[in-house]
Amino acid sequence: MAWSLIPLLVLILFIAAIASQCEFKPGGPTAGPVPSFDIDAGLKYDAAELGFPIRHPEVPEDWQPNSGSRSIVSGGQGGDSSTVGFITPAGRYVRLTQSDAGEDELVRFVAGGARTATDTRVVEDHDWVVYGGEGVEALWVSDFGDVRILIGGSGDEAEFTTLATAAGRAEPLEP
Questions:
Q1: In which residue ranges is the amino acid composition biased (Polar residues) (predicted)?
Q2: What does the pLDDT read at residue 75?
């Protein structure tokens, strides 16, 4: 019975090789190219379409914008949100979400459940509430009055501070 499976296995490997769906890499997988996202166009569009101020933070040149999205935040004080993501030089993902939703709803929406505030930071005259804990992604949230800004991702504290600084200095885009 085992001898009858060998031709079948050879045929499967042959078809996979022809279709280029199989590859042998002794060193393991390697990182592919970072996707590109036109952050200028994305944020300008969101500024024109959403009913709250959208800021375009000036991050370091070596941070590559790689994603953007808009979502509806559900909950008691739900609203809309605009998110852009960056890959830092260290290869970590950091995202900035801007929303007219309440802080609790925004944190629940992004975190997928309730989180407890664990710390605070002051960056560029803005108070940032840190939602963290063991084994969970840190989230920083600040209330800019007309918009809540949330920073999350796999970045470290220095990268979060860099993005919080850029967000604090950014002026709202014209709709």
A1: 64-80
A2: 64
Radius of gyration of the chain (CA): 22
How much helix, strand and coil, in percent to the nearest 5, is found in the chain?
A: 30, 30, 40
Q: Are 153 and 94 in contact (CB under 8 A)?
A: yes
The total of structural domains in the chain comes to: 1
Residue range(s) defining the domain that contains residue 164: 39-169
Amino acid at 1: M
Q: Give the largest CA-CA distance in the chain.
A: 74
Model confidence pLDDT, tens digit, residues 150-166 = 999 999 999 999 999 99
Bridge partner list, 151: 96, 140
Alpha-carbon gap, residue 164 to 143, rounded angstroms: 12
The helix/strand/coil state of 76 is coil
Distance, in Å, from the CA atom of 16 to the CA atom of 131, rounded to the nearest integer, reads 46
Q: What is the DSSP letter of 155?
A: -
- pLDDT tens digits for 52-98? 999 999 999 999 999 999 999 976 667 899 999 999 999 999 999 99
